[in-house]
């Protein structure tokens, strides 16, 4: 007697699921119009200053300054330990500065823009 083929579909438990480790380019945590939001915030800041829009080069330069200030503030104890080491000399300073500057390359221009705009906004609040 031939075996009867089960025509019932797979249960929900056995259906193929997307793997949890699959990486998507879309982020559920960020709104879709975030780039437009950044430009709106930038326009609001610029209209208050009555100045020209900030270019990507200016964003990168300002971000580098803000980033280096934050890093040196956060890691001041570690930097002081490096400076007090026996093998720290005048040639070590450019190496340390270069190492700190390399951290800026980890951020996209959109992330840099958000940090700079937040920093500008924070500076304006402190002035008021």
Could you describe the 3D structure shown?
This protein is an all-alpha fold and 128 residues long. The protein has a domain of 73 residues. Helices cover 57% and strands 0% of the residues. It has five helices and no strands. α1 runs parallel beside α5 and α2 packs across α5. The radius of gyration is 26 Å and the shape is elongated. The N and C termini lie far apart (90 Å). Keywords: Nucleus, Ribonucleoprotein, Ribosome biogenesis. It is found in: Nucleus, Nucleolus. It holds the Pfam family Rsa3. Its main location: nucleus. This is Ribosome assembly protein 3.
List the helices and strands and how they pair.
Layout: H1 34-49, H2 56-74, H3 76-83, H4 92-102, H5 109-127
Helix pairs in contact: 1-5, 2-5
Function: Required for efficient biogenesis of the 60S ribosomal subunit.
Subcellular location: Nucleus, Nucleolus
Biased composition (Basic and acidic residues): 36-55
Strand content: under 5%
Number of beta strands: 0
What's the Cα radius of gyration?
A: 26 Å
**What kind of assembly state do the chains in view correspond to?**
single chain
**SS field, number of helical segments:** 5
Main β-sheet description: none
Distance between the ends = 90 Å
Instruction: Report the average pLDDT across residues.
Output: 74
Structural class: mainly alpha
Q: Identify low-pLDDT runs.
A: 23-48
Order of helices and strands: HHHHH
Assign an overall shape: elongated
Main location: nucleus
Subcellular location: Nucleus, Nucleolus
Function: Required for efficient biogenesis of the 60S ribosomal subunit.
Biased composition (Basic and acidic residues): 36-55
